[in-house]
Amino acid sequence: MSVTKYPSPTASNAATSQVLTIEEGKELVRLCRTGRLYEVDAWIASGKSLSVPSTIRKTPLQVAVEIGFHSLVRLLARNDRDVTNLNQALSDAVALRNLDTVPLLLEHGADLKSVPLADVLLTWEPKLIQLFLDGGADVLEGLPFTVAFCAKVRTALRPFINFKQSHSEFEFQLQEQLERALRHFAREGDLKWVSLLLWAGADPRSIGPSGMDEDDPEIYVSAIEQAAASSHVEILKKFKLNLERDDMSRLLCEASFGQSSDVLVYLLELGARPNDRPNGGSSSLSRCLNFMRFERIGIHGFAGKRTVYSVSESLRKIRILAEHKAIWNPDDAYEMNSVRRTLLECEPEVSIALFKIFVPNAVCSQDTWKSLFLSARFRQHLEKESWWLTRLKLRDFAEGPPGKSKGRLASSPRISRQLLARYDREQLYRQVWEQPMQKLVKEYGISDVALSKTCRKLRVPVPGRGFWAKKDAGVPLPKRPELPELD
After folding, report:
1. What's the pLDDT band for 348 if we cut at 50, 70, 90?
2. In whole angstroms, what is the distance from residue 190 CA to residue 213 CA?
3. What is the DSSP letter of 73?
4. Domain tally for the chain?
5. Which terminus of the chain is more solvent-facing, meaning fewer CB atoms within 10 Å of its CB: N or C?
6. What are the backbone dihedrals phi and psi of residue 19, each rounded to the nearest 5 degrees, phi first?
């Protein structure tokens, strides 16, 4: 589609640039809208202006473009001195995808570069796209090809490839626009467009901004990392990862913060090492632990303590990593406090579910367990889970550090002086472990339920359910818990 430039209008054959009155402007627009070609021609021949007041929304030339009257467009374009009017009409003609009007306006002086190339690409019209590319449109300003690709304009792909091959001076900038779009679709999980952009030459391992995001080096990322973080395993497979070219541990860390465990499994099957820290710990496992506080949080947040169900995906990922020998070894006290704070925001059974994964898989060392239970508040949080803590062999940690403070719950409820005066804690402690509660109540003259409540208030540990039956049967019994000291 070639464009022939007409000479600019001269004073002898062009309408004057004096602005019409509102009444005259409305009359001229009416003539154009009703297609009165000869009357408009007479208007121009009489020397009247074509410039309408700014209060009139559209110029006569824009009206002619809108109604698609080719001869009227030619007449007005040839005689309108104002390049701004020509450019506005050109923008309208592009938006309307008018393949006849656009070349006509360019022939009569409209500036091709006044229309952003992105607007042209979004028309999907190959002829218009090629016309503007051949005419010297700005291919860099506003990242037009990134805009078009992110809008899924397929007709922009072939012109892009041809232009990039024939204009080596823009190769780097055009490649970056292509890869911005690839990172966008890797994040969105659009396998079809990822495939198209790879066919067009995009590199999934290049680092940079995604889509139309701000060009900030601190948030640069690759398409592979985007796919891993967004849990799109099919796209990762399309990128054909391998241990020699790709940092699998980093990808594993990105995947640990995603919404699904599928990518985690895929990366581990490829040979990713979960324990990547200098101290032998796993970054990905630490991120999974931190992600528990964000899982299933909507725009209104999450009310109340989180349940096992609400963190089920995080627990699933933690189990997968643990079964692949991941080690939790916090780098510093801040990380330990962060995990402890996360667990305090959950119901106690969440901690027990986590410990059921940690203990059989030897996820952390004795020192790490000690550090986790160092907080009296955390020990109190798990106070009602003493049966599970005993079964998991964590009771010693849950009773606090050794020495004078062992067994003491710093923030435990206060015990009334009257109750302490009425009962001897040490004697009661010996008695409940020497005979069943049903026999002991005769001595105290109260029911077994009341005596159990009294023991609980006095912080006296009692045998668990089935203790006496096991003792009578000669079954080995767990170690008797010590009597806690009181504040």
Report:
1. very high
2. 18
3. H
4. 3
5. C
6. -75, 130
In terms of residues, how long is the chain?
A: 487
Is the same domain home to 205 and 161? yes
Do the domain assignments include residue 19? yes
Sign, CA torsion 174/180/186/192? negative
Q: Name the nearest CA neighbour of 87 among 61, 53, 69, 57.
A: 61
pLDDT higher than threshold 70 for residue 410: no
* pLDDT of 285 strictly over 50: yes
Which of residues 195, 219, 240 is at a domain's end?
240
In SS3 terms, 193-256 reads as HHHHHHHCCCCCCCEECCCCCCCCHHHCEEHHHHHHHCCCHHHHHHHCCCCCCCCHHHHHHHHC
- If we measure between CA atoms, which residue out of 310, 276, 284, 309 comes closest to residue 296? 310
Q: What is the DSSP letter of 70?
A: H
State how far the alpha carbon of 455 is from the alpha carbons of 215, 344, 382, 451, in Å: 65, 27, 19, 6
Q: Which domain holds residue 439?
A: 418-487
pTM over 0.85: no
Helix (H, G, I), strand (E, B) or coil at 122: coil
Tell me the longest C-alpha to C-alpha distance in the chain: 125
Domain end, chosen from 240, 270, 298, is at 240
Average pLDDT over residues 287-311: 75
Query: Does residue 397 form part of some domain?
Result: no
SS (H, E, C) 254-316: HHCCCCCCHHHHHHHHHCCCCCCCCCCCCHHHHHHHHHCCCCCCECCECCCCECCHHHHHHHH
pLDDT band, residue 486 (cuts 50/70/90): confident
The CATH number of the domain holding residue 182 is: 1.25.40
The reply to whether 484 and 427 lie within a common domain is yes
Average pLDDT over every residue of 197-216: 93
Residues pairing with 298 in the sheet: 301
Give mean pLDDT, residues 199-228. Answer: 92
Q: Are residues 74 and 159 in the same domain?
A: no
Report helix, strand and coil shares of the chain as percent, to nearest 5: 55, 0, 40
Any domain includes 305: no
Same domain, 29 and 130: no
Q: Say how many CA atoms lie within 13 Å of 204 toward its Cβ.
A: 27
Please tell me the distance from the alpha carbon of residue 26 to that of residue 60, in angstroms, as a whole number.
Answer: 9
Would you state the pLDDT for residue 300? 44
Residue % of the chain over a pLDDT of 70: 92
Question: What is the distance between the alpha carbons of residues 432 and 66, in angstroms, rounded to a whole number?
Answer: 95
133 and 206 share one domain: yes
